[in-house]
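Run log // design_07
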């Protein structure tokens, strides 16, 4: 058996096409794909969007208009690793617009999807073999909502 990889399915209550267009506008290397519509077979109104396929940052997604039964929660999130503060600020502002800033680099977008906007190398720093470096970096991280890369670097360096 040959796997064709993974596609993440995101369950929406009528906003799948709007969300797909939003994510494609936020992320580089993104594009819209097929749009499937409900037929006479249902369960939605004929012609309404059932699903929309899209890629964001090269990752495959399908937005499904499944109804109000299920909603997003923080137990599933997407991590975006950023090379510098400008990139981090860009994703933070675009994804928090109409949503909510949470804590420790987490943001919930206007559709309820959780994102972690994280500087490259943070995980290595909070798990550094030097326990003092790891402790300082972790304490700095836990005090932040949106990450300040310069402040994290200072904490790691002991400044």
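design_07 sequence
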């Amino acid at each position: 058996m040959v796997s064709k990889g993974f596609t993440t399915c995101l369950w929406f209550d009528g906003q799948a096409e709007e969300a797909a267009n939003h994510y494609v506008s936020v992320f580089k290397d993104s594009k819209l794909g097929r749009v499937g519509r409900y037929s006479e077979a249902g369960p939605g109104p004929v012609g309404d969007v059932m699903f929309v396929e899209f890629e964001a940052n090269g990752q495959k997604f399908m937005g499904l208009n499944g109804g109000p039964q299920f909603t997003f929660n923080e137990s599933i999130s997407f991590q975006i690793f950023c090379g510098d503060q400008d990139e981090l600020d860009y994703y933070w502002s675009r994804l928090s617009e109409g949503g909510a800033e949470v804590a420790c680099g987490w943001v919930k977008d206007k559709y309820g999807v959780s994102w972690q906007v994280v500087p490259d190398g943070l995980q290595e720093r909070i798990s550094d073999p030097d326990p003092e470096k790891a402790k300082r970096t972790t304490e700095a991280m836990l005090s932040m909502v949106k990450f300040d890369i310069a402040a994290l670097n200072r904490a790691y360096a002991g400044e």
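Residues 85-96 form the longest helix (12 residues).
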